[in-house]
Structures are given as structure tokens and as C-alpha cells.
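quick one, two chains, predict together pls
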Amino acid sequence: MKNWIQAFSVIDFISVGILLAAVAMNALRRIESCVRAYTLNSWLLSLLIGIVAFMIGETHLYIAAAVTLLSKGIAIPVFLRRIVRQMKITHDVEPYISNALSLTISGILVAVVYASLKEGIFVAGFSKNVLQISVAVILIGLFIMITRRKAVIQVIGLLFMENGLFLAGFSLTFGMPTIIELGILFDMLMGVIILGMFIIQIRRAFASADLDKLTVLKG
Amino acid sequence: MEYFQFLIILMLSPLIQGIIRKLKANMQGRIGPGIFQPYYDLIRLLKKDMVISGVTSWIFKATPYIVFASTAAASMIVPVITTKSPFDVMGDVIALIYIFALGRFFMALSGLDAGTAFGGEGSSREMTVAILVEPMMMLSIFTAAISAGSTNIARIAGSGLLFSPSHILALSAFMIAIIAETGRIPVDNPDTHLELTMIHEGMLLEYSGKYLALMEWAHYMKQMLLFTIAVDIFFPAGISNGTESLALASSFGIYIVKILFMAGLMALVESTRAKIRFFQLPSILGGAFVLALLSLLTYIMMSK
């Protein structure tokens, strides 16, 4: 089994899948598909951690994989989908720049990451490309937060950044202590819930989740 | 024997077109014409007289020969059943892409030459698509070329099966490039002459008789050639490296299976997708370009 994973470079495939799910965010037009892209990203993330746990046989990585799957893979997507349904948002993502341009810029971001992380940074064993991919995911998440108008999409961008950070920490240190990981996950879960309430409040006050409307004064 | 492998593409390409049409018709619940129908069409067209507009120049008359000859030249470069190519020195992927570009350039000129609105429209659209497709084709082939250590297509094919995430990405970008280059459904509709949608057909609108036959045949050849390049680069397993007749026969059988698989894939894509608006094309082709770029980047990153 371990030989099989090595031979078919499963870890490479999964990490490229994580990157693709983040890049795909730039091309998607509907909010529901964005949530789906995030779900895919989280499942691949937890799969990756699970496989590494299997390869090096560490128990606390199994726990991290399971907790990631439960919180990021199931709880947060379900919550986001409920917000989307509750607000009856129009389906479009409404970016500030066109899809083609946004895809190109995310491609350039990935290129910049590869060029700048080529050498000089200590990485543990197998995970050199995982580190580069995680930094790319962080940057793409940031880029999505900057260029999207809808609050929900900005939250998803933040979540992508968090996934990228998690992956980066994991690839450099083979996972932080379980207690810290649990703390981060709990923090993030709370953050998403609070942001969800914010979105609903913004929507109630301005009849729209479009953050551009926040610049309009209300008497 | 290896000198005549391009005849396979020359002679079988109408058959592949017929098979794609038949499969498409069956998937849509129609019976459809027989798989040999493109041959009958070509023979019929070759017998017919031509009607040539009086305002056209020599470009209009030269284009069918240029297009046909450039496609035939391209098919001599590509290894079909053996990697022992007779034109080994010239068998370069970049040269191949620009031989295609030569044919496309003259086709676009001929569309403009007759001075009709549809021809010019077709030419302008074709060039727009070409600008988007060419770099993406280059990048996805470069991924394979780097890992094989050569841009010679026969050497890429001879270097064996490549299996890594970057090759999967490159393959998916290349498939989208094939769809755009052959004028299939998400990009162009090959079955209609509706003026709002046509790209490739728009440029051929003024042609009739023998010239039309040459242009259509060249189009079938280009399609089969692109399939061949895809299987050469991304699934080279089974292709013969020598010229023994037994090995060539088995290589031919495997080649036919692979090409039929590609044809089935094209028919499936065409039956399940709707044609997209022309102005949305940049977003799909841009996505495919990013796929090709990522394939190159991941290859560079993971190999070192």
C-alpha cells in the first residue's frame, strides 16, 4: 500500500488538486459552486493529511485529518450553504474584474510563488511542493477576498487562506500539537459563524450583501 | 514502410469524421448517416464544377492547395505507428504548430478575399480563437517536451508513458485546445451554417466543388492529426520503435483503438455540452491556458 502511494505519486496528485480547487474559484460564476469548490478543497486537505498520517504512522495526524474533515469539510460548507439559501442571494459572484483576467492573475500568482520559494527555505522531506502549493493557495484566497463584491465570497476567500495556512504549517512541521490545531479550528468555526451573522445583518440593513453599498450613508 | 505512415492519416481521416458523426447521432437518438458518408461527400464534390466569384484574387484559388499541402506536410512529421520517423530532423512540435498556422493564415485570407460579410466574420473569429489557443497548445506540449528532453515529437513519443499530475493538467488543456482547433461544439458548431454561430464554416462559405473538397479533407486530416499528436504525447504506450511488420501491425491496432477512444470522447463532449456565446470563449480558453501554465509550473517544481 505504501509502495503503491509512492509509485503513483498520490501526494502530488492530491496537492495539485488542492491548488486546482483554489484556482477554479476564479472561474466560477455561482456562489453555490464556490462553496462546492471550498468543500472539495477541504476534503482533499484532510485526505492528504490522512495519507501522510498513514505513511509516517502518527496518531495525532489522524485526529487532525478527522477534525479537518468534520469542521471544514462538513460543518462550515453546510453552514455557508444555509446562509446562501436563507438570504436568497442572486446567483452571480460579481467580481470587480473579468473571469479571464482573474484566472490569469491567479496563474501569475502561482508562478511568482514557485519562483520565489525555489530555494533557501527549510522544508521537511517530501513536502517541498506542498509548501509552495499552500503559499499559492493563501495568495489566491487573498486575491479572491480583494476582488469579489459579495460578502459570502469574501468569507470563502478567507477560508481558503486558512486552508492554505493549515497546509503550510503542516508541511513544515508535520502538524502542530493537537491542542493548538483544535484551538485554531474552533476559532475559525466561531469566526465563520460570526461572519455569517454579519452577512445576514448587512443584508437586513442594506437589502443586499454587496459590500460596495456599505459606503452609502443612511440617515 | 515508415515513409508511408502519413497515408494512414490521409486515407482514414474522413472515416474518423464519419464515426464521430455517427456516434453523435446515436447519442442524440438519431440514426444518422453511415460512417463512410464523408468519403461519398468528398468524391461527389471532386466531380462537381466550381463557382468562383469574379472579384476574387489568386489567394482564393491558391488557398485550398496551401491548406491541403500544409496539413499533409504536418502529417508527415507526426509519428503515427512508428517513432522511426523519416523526417526526423524536421519533426519539431513548434514547427508543427506553425505549419498549422500557415494553413490557418491563408484560410482566413481567403475568407476575406471574396468580400462577403460572413467570410470576414468567420476569419476574424478564427483568428481570435487562434490567438487564445496557440499559446495554450505550446505550453501543454512543452510540459511533455521538458520531461522527454526534446521538442522532437517522435522522441517525445518514444520516451514512454508519462504519469504525473502535470501531465494530466497538460492533457486536459490540450483536449480543450483540440476542441477549439477542430471547431467542435462548445466553441463552434460544425453542423450548421447559421450566421451567428459559425467560425470555420464561415470561411469556407464561398468555396464549392473541388476546392471545397480539398478544404474539407484538410479539415478532417487536421482533426485526426491533432488526435494523433495527443495520443503520441500523452499515451505513447504501444507505439512501435522499429519497422518490423509484425510490430507495426500491432502498433496500428493499438493506434486505431486510441483514435476511436478520442473520437468517442469528442462525440460525448459534443452531445452533452451546449455551444457557448462567442464572447464567453476567452473565459473558457483562458481557464485552459491557466491549466497549461500550472502543468508547466508543477512539472518544474516537482521534478527539482
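The mean pLDDT of chain A is 83.
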